[in-house]
Amino acid sequence: MIIIAATGMLVLLFFYLLVKKKEEKLQKRMAKFSELGTANNLAFSSQELLHNRIIGLDGIKRTLLIFDYRTKKGNCLLINLEDVESCKVKEIYQPMSNNNAGNRMTETYLEKIVLEFARKHSESVELPFYEFNKNHIMKTRALGKKAKHWETILSKMINRDFKKTA
What are the residues facing 119 on neighbouring strands? Predict the structure, then answer.
């Protein structure tokens, strides 16, 4: 009985330490994101935490900060909405591998859901919200809704710019 209780306590301690370490990592990433915002003179009106990215919108300056923390140093991308023609959610499908070469019908799966920024004077940028190999399939709908929410917000800000120039 004592061995079972001791084993249970060790398992609980292990999970507690695991959660604590994960929270500490998140706090460090959020602090780095905040530093990047401050360094670029941004005040975020909206933020979103994705699988390996944090995004923040400064509505007044109409600038989006994307912080990708997959690397130790992290990568930062600033998107000025005045330089964006459109912002659209794209669902990207890939064919499933099929060993039956005679079968003409190819099944596909949802590889990723991205928010695509078509920029006026440079290449488009894709911001992944859902990636098949990184997110659980049960999160597909929720992450798709988040992408649509951001598309709505950003499109209104981009279209406002077109109305001024028209």
Answer: 84
The amino acid at 57: L
Q: Tell me the pLDDT tens digit for each residue of 15-62.
A: 777 778 888 888 888 999 999 999 999 999 999 999 889 999 999 999
* CA atoms within 13 Å, Cβ hemisphere of 53: 19
Long-range contacts of 1-6 (CB under 8 A, 24+ apart): none
pLDDT score, position 17: 74
Beta-sheet strands, E only, within the chain: 46-49, 53-58, 63-68, 75-80, 84-95, 108-119, 125-131
Q: Give me the amino acid identity at 51.
A: H
Whole-prediction pTM: 0.78
Phi-psi region of 12 (alpha: psi -120 to 50; beta: other; left: phi over 0): alpha
Q: What are phi and psi of 55, to 5 degrees?
A: -120, 145
The answer to whether 26 and 37 have CB atoms below 8 angstroms apart is no
Write out the two tokens for 56.
Answer: 């923040």
pLDDT of residue 29: 87
